[in-house]
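Aim 2, interim progress: modelling of the zinc ion-bound target.
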Amino acid sequence: MKKLVNNDLQGPVRTCMVCRVRFQKHDLTRHVWRGEWTPDKAYILPGRGYYCCAGEACKAKFPKRAAAVRKGKGEGKRDEA
Ligand SMILES: [Zn+2]
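Predicted structure of the complex, ligand included:
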């Protein structure tokens, strides 16, 4: 079975909050909640960042997933819709 975690990653590493695969930070899109999910392409917005990889499935699930985590639900739980 192929391991998804790549230990050779260099620099800051973040986890896609949907698929939980680790990527280099700049391979993920950072989103910050500012009344709506706002992509933070420059990684400069204040507040907690929520990271999503470029996978179509992840991008589709991200808003719901991120909203659940933001409300304190979904940490450690997978309640996919
Ligand atoms: Zn992902």
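Residues 16, 18-19, 21, 53, 55, 58 surround zinc ion (CB under 6 Å). Strands lie at 13-15, 22-24, 29-33, 37-39, 50-52.
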